[in-house]
Amino acid sequence: MRLCEPLAIEDYGVQPMPDASPPKWHLAHTTWFFETFLLKPYLPAYRPFNADFEFLFNSYYNGVGKQFPRGERGNLSRPTVAEVRDYRAHVDAAMETLFGQAEDEAEARSLLGLQHEQQHQELLLTDVKYNFGHNPLHPAYRDDPGRPGSRPAPRLRFIESGGGVREIGTTSNGAFAFDNETPRHRVFLEPHALANRLVTNGEYLAFIEDGGYTRPELWLADGWTRLHSGERWTAPLYWRLKNDCWREYHLTGLTQLDLDAPVIHVSYYEADAYARWAGARLPTEQEWETAAEDLSPEANGGLTQMFGDAWQWTASAYGSYPGYEPLPGALGEYNGKFMSNQMVLRGGSCVTAEDHVRPSYRNFFYPGDRWQFSGIRLARDRDL
Amino acid sequence: MRLCEPLAIEDYGVQPMPDASPPKWHLAHTTWFFETFLLKPYLPAYRPFNADFEFLFNSYYNGVGKQFPRGERGNLSRPTVAEVRDYRAHVDAAMETLFGQAEDEAEARSLLGLQHEQQHQELLLTDVKYNFGHNPLHPAYRDDPGRPGSRPAPRLRFIESGGGVREIGTTSNGAFAFDNETPRHRVFLEPHALANRLVTNGEYLAFIEDGGYTRPELWLADGWTRLHSGERWTAPLYWRLKNDCWREYHLTGLTQLDLDAPVIHVSYYEADAYARWAGARLPTEQEWETAAEDLSPEANGGLTQMFGDAWQWTASAYGSYPGYEPLPGALGEYNGKFMSNQMVLRGGSCVTAEDHVRPSYRNFFYPGDRWQFSGIRLARDRDL
Amino acid sequence: MRLCEPLAIEDYGVQPMPDASPPKWHLAHTTWFFETFLLKPYLPAYRPFNADFEFLFNSYYNGVGKQFPRGERGNLSRPTVAEVRDYRAHVDAAMETLFGQAEDEAEARSLLGLQHEQQHQELLLTDVKYNFGHNPLHPAYRDDPGRPGSRPAPRLRFIESGGGVREIGTTSNGAFAFDNETPRHRVFLEPHALANRLVTNGEYLAFIEDGGYTRPELWLADGWTRLHSGERWTAPLYWRLKNDCWREYHLTGLTQLDLDAPVIHVSYYEADAYARWAGARLPTEQEWETAAEDLSPEANGGLTQMFGDAWQWTASAYGSYPGYEPLPGALGEYNGKFMSNQMVLRGGSCVTAEDHVRPSYRNFFYPGDRWQFSGIRLARDRDL
Amino acid sequence: MRLCEPLAIEDYGVQPMPDASPPKWHLAHTTWFFETFLLKPYLPAYRPFNADFEFLFNSYYNGVGKQFPRGERGNLSRPTVAEVRDYRAHVDAAMETLFGQAEDEAEARSLLGLQHEQQHQELLLTDVKYNFGHNPLHPAYRDDPGRPGSRPAPRLRFIESGGGVREIGTTSNGAFAFDNETPRHRVFLEPHALANRLVTNGEYLAFIEDGGYTRPELWLADGWTRLHSGERWTAPLYWRLKNDCWREYHLTGLTQLDLDAPVIHVSYYEADAYARWAGARLPTEQEWETAAEDLSPEANGGLTQMFGDAWQWTASAYGSYPGYEPLPGALGEYNGKFMSNQMVLRGGSCVTAEDHVRPSYRNFFYPGDRWQFSGIRLARDRDL
């Protein structure tokens, strides 16, 4: 609710593209999650707020029932924002009751519900940015805090790793993890090296100016096709060219392009093409995770911007780990059924809740998606 | 503005299909019309409210400039409703100034602007109905006034007309008319007959129950194709079948189907198929207009429901009258450039401003359009 | 069959766009017409050649049964051309038998079948032209006979007509006419004038060079939209620009553009835009037909190129005449069910059978269609 | 050419869906490969057969130049089959000349050209099957040899493997391998088990009869979406239900479904859903390849149908091996640029050239593709 405070009522309802759900929908759906998976099964006295909401705010759980079509969420002027707030209050109150009497399974699900809400907090900001960033008036979501001048990006270096048999996946230390991070298992890595930082806007601009978007030899075939369909990409999603000068839309409004900041809002195809142009490649998720584990907490090795700057596309298709078991029942649809056609991103961005990310966290999006805060870390085979 | 009073702020912004513009957009566009065609050319001191609005709220006037894409009007959470109200107040005030000093041409254009606003008043209600009528919650736009019980429809009769050379088109009595109603000209009509009233829901239900939507011999080829693409029509747009019982959505909410009320929200294809099933045809616009002229003011001849119940599909494709001249400049785009692929409707519906319609008024929509308050009057060649 | 002699076997099967059916399909469908509407109902001993053909070669007769999807006709490598020839021979032989014993109704239908075949003879050439004209090798269908040098087009003049009550539609002289030409009926025409000849390539080139395709004020709204979707028209369908020089594909191959020949292969939208640019309009079908009747046989009045040069777009939407009755049964689908969204063309082109056209003949196509041999005759209101 | 002998001329040209290229195109494109990559660079005296062919028969090599649109290959009635045969003879003759003087690089490329032609031999049969199998006449490509009665499939068993560090990728024994099989590298496998044979039609029928296509919990989200779009899958691609009896189209014609034969022509989505229904999963390509290596030549371990029955979907997304380097120049587009959105298949089918497949061979298709001879081998984590 705090994230929504800067919004006008009008901003809660729009869905400028199918993937960018309205803020109102995020507010209602996360509440629906608690109602559906906690209150209905575990609180016998619970009375649903509105019977139609089971259908209206179900995202994709076939095990729960039919869903209102995803692409039409922006067409629902009702319920109003006030009604959604009442819905949240109704469910929050019932959750308080449930906490007083909860069983273990309900506790575990509550934790999942909170993690789920954290994910939607990020998506809400991602989607608000899409809305405002595509409105010709370019409204700001929040004031620019008067950022300190961007510091020059350090020189790009590659940090080597020796390879061998390693382990990835969540460690059994009791902390929360999604099912897709399990089980921890062994992998074999060939020697390789990861870049010490993310690719900057300045570096990406050099790629553009070198004809990056016009040279098919740099692109995956599907990326090249995508490049020439629909919107015709020529730059990252929020870059705007005006009078030969690049500007970038942020949640604080349109500003001059910061050449030292990490490039964000690029697709996997663009990340991959950039890497090829730069004589490098993207890291695998195994390489990324083992490097991230080495970081935490004391060892560092020179890697920066691993968490909290931008999601980092990996070269790994999103799939199941050996021995993976989805959660039982409809909650098994949370992660498992998306294990095709998507690529893994690692790290976490500036709009991700700080305590939400961890080395084993697997984010996943389609290779053409650009509306997430997605950037690029380079990798290399070591003998290059 | 009065029509918008029952709306929540959330209702002003949605566009559930490309043709159903958001109420906020109607409010802004009608104001844009006065700003663009009156204030900018005729009030030298006028300062535009917001330079971006020229683009944002231009509907289709290429002579004015580029237009924000029609299908994305619902994605504009900004300007807010309050800002649009300010825009209207700004323009209204300037119009007052202009009225103090107006030339003839400006006066004529002001009248056009008012007629334009009346058209959008109707469209606003049409579009609100589409939004509410497609929301699973089926909210009501206004309370049901407790309508008097529907009166039984009178027996269907055909009123004959002798044909011959007649005149249609606006008469030069000084009253307002759109350019597409001019010039008045002669036509030759064969003898024919028009039904005394509109087709009722009950009659249309008989068509459905007789397999009307499943018998290709009743349909135009393009209608049959349309019937089987997209939404798969099986009844008028706002009919809802639940537990084997038909209900109909009105601006007052979902109610039992009134069998004696005129059927509304049917496409030209459905009107044409119904007429064929009934052994009749649709009237031409020439037949309709000459009959309507005969009505007014004293002669009646038995025709009812000519104005104010439902727009009545005619068998006439929308085209230019002999000698037609569009208005000069960008205003010439108002009506003339749509003279292909659309069918003429005559009469006016329950949401049309009462003083807006007249015998010569030509409304026009695509034959597959159903979201207007469009109904059916039958006609016959006389020797049948 | 004679028209197919220049074809390679490979040419019989292709369908480069849904509207351009393969020659093999034309050969089989016209035979299907005789089999379905003559042999099956009137020749009791008739044995169908292949039971699957009833479905495969039914074009659009719902009254006969389901149809193989139109857009996939080019996917049928079988039956082979030889098998289709056998099919034709089988049906031809049975028709000979039928002729020996035919009733009146069968005779009337045979005549319809022959007219139908004549229509498909034209379509076959139209479709072969589309195929060859879109093949990068630009093969010729037939040799160029060494045409005499094109004669200079005469000066454009407008031939006036006085208007008044006239008659159109087929005359009851016993000659064949399609149902859509009936009944003959009276119309009222305002005074007007028709151009003495068709618009030439040279004149149309001047329209292009004057920015005709880039000026929205010249275009119908639907035409302007069409212009910017899909193929992006910038010239008639078979004009090819190479090294700043326009050439035109004909059935005899690619040749230099003949500036004095009539422009052909333009859509209604282009014809309408050209007319607006030229300060004129298109004729209505009533104006065209009455002028054509005046021509035949002795009076001339100065009109040329009325028949046999190019189909001429009229400003008239294709619809039914007052009192129109389609043929009974499935044959009623021949013309009547297409009476929406299409425009009437009059005259006949260089690939139309000479004895096939007449003043009352109504051809009809969608306003965006360009693959027919369609050209432009201008008209004017007389007082211009 | 021998594979084409059963074809009628008409069969060489059709392309019933974009992926199923015409036989004529396969014949020309494989010849184009030799012309483009061997003759033009290495045989100075070579004269191209037809300059337009460089464009017409380029499949996807941007490094060579523009390509004729893939989806329109079926629209090219010219060049004729005879002309394509002449093209092949022309290039074959020049290749003989080249072989007399070839350098090492040319020899390596020739070998690649032959492997390329072998791939297209398989595709040609795959595409012919698609064409014939979707023609309502269901023609046979070749006679049924009177197959011996299908033997009962052996009992399904799972063969265990211990896991650990293994190697995959081509071995450096000098035999031909594509670049995507390199470099050989180490992987870590968890213990697992592979089914001893492929899933049979009978087993797959049980999945269908158990509601397999109607239970969302069995399907990947993208698969469930695909299932409900377009063709609406309810069975493998060539199964045909008639009078409650399943038949299957083979290149020998329509026959009764053989319950003991491997199920083929299923998509990855169907293979994955079947595996989930069966309480198993698909093997990874690493698991498959190490098992295949263990097979060859002497060890067997009970695995059958590894090569020559059906391509076997793996759970592995197609990507690059660590240290992968594509071939230099335009030939680098052969495999590398397709490394996104596709899944790896292993083994080889009944239409694959026998000496073409090997343990390290990686075939790849989109998860929704069904027109390849693709089947299912199950796998399990060992502790199940």
Description:
The structure is a homotetramer of 384-residue chains. Chain A has helices at residues 23-42, 53-56, 81-99, 104-133, 201-209, 221-227, 268-277, 285-295; strands spanning 158-161, 164-168, 185-189, 192-195, 239-242, 245-250, 253-256, 311-317, 343-346, 363-365, 374-375, 379-381. With 384 residues, chain A is an alpha+beta fold. The first copy, chain A, is globular and about 65 Å long. In chain A, strand 5 and strand 6 form a beta hairpin. In chain A, strands 10-9-8-11 form a four-stranded mixed beta sheet. A three-stranded antiparallel beta sheet of chain A has the order 1-4-12, covered by helices on one side. In chain A, strands 5-6-7 form a three-stranded antiparallel beta sheet, with no helix packed on it. In chain A, 29% of the residues lie in helices and 13% in strands. Chain A has two domains: 9-133, no CATH class; 145-384, paralog of FGE (formylglycine-generating enzyme). Chain C binds chain D through residues 8-16, 24, 52, 55-56, 68, 72, 74-81, 131-132, 134-137, 139, and chain D through 8-16, 24, 52, 55-56, 68, 72, 74-81, 131-132, 134-137, 139.
